[in-house]
UniProtKB/TrEMBL annotation:
Residues 1-27 form the signal peptide. Residues 435-447 have a biased composition (Basic and acidic residues). Keywords: Signal. PANTHER family: PROTEIN CBG08683, PTHR41349. This is Discoidin domain-containing protein. It comes from Nonomuraea roseola. Residues 430-457 are annotated as: Disordered. Residues 121-420 form the Endonuclease/exonuclease/phosphatase domain.
Length: 597
């Protein structure tokens, strides 16, 4: 590992990676040449580092530092930071297994001409917070509004408002001071929601100067796009749009299958080219209508920032590039998705990936906290920003309820408030204003990253030496023998609808009493994760009649295997008691016992 840091890598102007390359003479001047150092916990690849940069502190001025870590054209870390004392520290990043260059730039700004901070939030609410009307008590919607207030966005882009729009506005404003209240706009008009519902909403603390009229053509309507011109406190303005695009040509499902098949050496059901064609069924045409027709008709020649958020039902070309082919869950798959690239080609920043450029370390999963995260990082929800004055400060994807809500009965069947995660981004709009007024949001590194653990220690007991029985199973396709046949493409599945209800048991006979080292429970590898076991108890027995508890388990809604150490226990039978599985069912692809070698 070498660090390439030639003098030209330490810049004194904004880098081309930001939306702006210069600031006006009245607003800023070039800072003194910054110095910096790398602070790492090791000397080679996989070391965790930060960039510590220092400039000159000046009275009544704020220093804007931009740090970028790259290998050639590949960006691995990026930060935009503001300080009055002349020193900053970037967020941690992991060194790749290649040479890196560190760029640091500095611009000095008058303390009252830094800019206006905005917190943006995009979220699909799953039929107005009702889980497709499965949750009719209203408690989930109340918790959802509580969570929105906790995030406290300045602009909230909503998809699937579906009858909850006014309740959300009332909940957001309950107890708020007059100067901190939200306004809400139903963007999907009656012409377009008469069949499906009032899909798009926009909530904001900013002054709504103009709501844009309904736009409709052959490819989109107000069900897909709507927006408003919003006034900033400094007299400037931004354009804000909520959007939703079509789900046919299921980008997540096709990518999931391809990555699983690559990882396990299974035949591919679709080529890369066939997968990419999914974008062309409707999404590419919708994107062109949004980007080349609708938004220009609203914005015209105005160069004010354009902010956009919503559910694209599309994977990102930035995530599935060659750079991340071997990232966890990618299975060597490289997919230059045409739909999301349209947004890049039209000058928009994908703010989550801009703030978190390492897609292996920060997968940004938003699909699906409810249905199960599957084997790949499903990122289909976005906040976009365009404009020379936009600075991205941080972004995160939320997929868990707030701690205070996790004691509710809702947390087990519905671990988040929707089937989509939300995206929260902090930006700064350069201009008059004192700059960031709260700590920018950050993504948790490695969230959902290590999705395929190494094989447990010991000798894998061959499938031919195993048999299995279950307390319930779906005849034929769900036979318990499928869990010990050595095939990842067959599943055990409880009878469904679940009769009897959980708990269910599946028991593996390893043929004789053995000294066992571990057991691997492999969930279904399908995008339909119904039955994936989340809570249960692992038990063992010598005679198949009397079982003793080994350990209680609680597993994530993912397709990665779950390993349990048996620490040399002697037993002939291994039983998994399924206390709770997705949909009230129990399912597994494989149970793989290991004995001491």
């Amino acid at each position: 590992m070498r660090f390439l840091v030639p003098p030209v890598a330490v810049a004194v102007a904004l880098t081309g990676l930001l939306a702006a390359t210069n600031t006006t003479a009245a607003a800023a001047d070039r800072g003194s040449k910054p110095s910096y150092r790398l602070d790492c916990d090791g000397n080679g690849p996989s070391s965790t580092c930060t960039v510590v940069a220092t400039g000159k502190a000046r009275p009544h001025r704020v220093e804007e530092f931009v740090t970028t870590v790259r290998s050639g054209d590949q960006v691995w870390a990026r930060d935009t930071l503001y300080t009055r004392d002349g020193q900053v520290r970037s967020r941690p990043f992991v060194l790749p297994d290649k040479d890196v260059t560190v760029d640091v730039s500095l611009t000095s700004l008058p303390e009252k001409h830094v800019g206006t901070p905005l917190r943006l939030m995009a979220w699909n609410l799953f039929v107005g917070g009702t889980y497709n009307r499965q949750e009719n008590t209203g408690e989930n919607l109340a918790q959802m509004i509580d969570y929105m207030n906790e995030v406290n966005p300045d602009i909230l882009f909503v998809v699937e408002g579906y009858g909850s729009g006014q309740k959300i506005l009332d909940g957001l404003n309950a107890g708020r001071a007059e100067g901190d209240r939200f306004a809400g706009v139903q963007l999907t008009t009656p012409e377009d929601y008469s069949v499906n519902g009032d899909n798009l909403w926009l909530y904001t603390k900013l002054d709504i100067q103009k709501v844009y009229p309904r736009y409709a053509d052959a490819d989109i309507s107000s069900f897909n796009l709507g927006g408003a011109r919003l006034g900033l406190p400094n007299g400037k303005h931004v354009h804000a749009f909520s959007l939703w695009t079509w789900h046919d040509g299921w980008a997540y499902g096709d990518t999931h299958d391809a990555a699983v098949q690559n990882t396990h050496g299974l035949p591919r059901t679709k080529t890369n080219e066939q997968i990419l064609e999914g974008d062309n069924l409707r999404r590419v045409a919708m994107g062109k209508a949004i980007l080349e027709k609708a938004i220009p008709s609203f914005v015209g020649d105005d160069d004010a920032p354009v902010l956009m958020g919503g559910d694209l039902n599309a994977q990102s070309h930035l995530d599935w590039s060659e750079q991340f082919a071997n990232a966890p869950g990618h299975g060597g798959v490289v997919l230059p998705w045409p739909y999301t690239k349209l947004y890049t080609d039209h000058g928009f920043m994908d703010t989550f990936r801009f703030a978190n450029p390492d897609a292996g370390r920060y997968p940004g999963r938003t699909w699906s906290p409810y249905h199960g995260m599957g084997a790949i990082p499903g990122r289909i929800d976005y906040v976009f920003a365009r404009g020379k004055d936009v600075r991205v400060l941080g972004s995160r994807a939320d997929i868990d309820r707030l701690p205070r809500h996790r004691q509710s009965w809702l947390n087990q069947p519905y671990p988040f408030y929707s089937d989509h995660g939300s995206v929260v981004t902090d930006v700064l709009i350069r201009g008059k204003g004192t700059g960031p007024d709260r700590e920018p949001v950050t993504e948790e590194p490695g969230k959902g990253r290590h999705i395929w653990p190494a094989e447990p220690a010991g000798r894998r007991i061959p499938p031919a030496e195993l048999t299995a029985t279950a307390s319930t199973f779906k005849p034929g396709i769900g036979d318990p023998r499928n869990a010990v046949d050595g095939k990842l493409t067959t599943d055990f599945h409880s009878d469904y609808p679940a009769v009897p209800p959980q708990p269910h048991t599946i028991t593996v006979d390893v043929g004789r009493v053995r000294e066992l080292s571990a057991v691997r429970f492999q969930p279904k590898l399908r995008t339909n994760m119904n039955g994936t076991i989340l809570k249960g108890m692992v038990q063992v027995s010598d005679d198949g009649i009397t079982f003793r508890d080994v350990t209680r388990v609680e597993w994530p809604r993912m397709t990665a295997p779950n390993d349990v150490s048996l620490q040399g226990l002697s037993a002939r039978y291994i039983r998994l008691r399924s206390d709770y599985g997705i949909g009230g069912a129990s399912a597994l692809a494989e149970i793989i016992p290991y004995e001491k070698a």
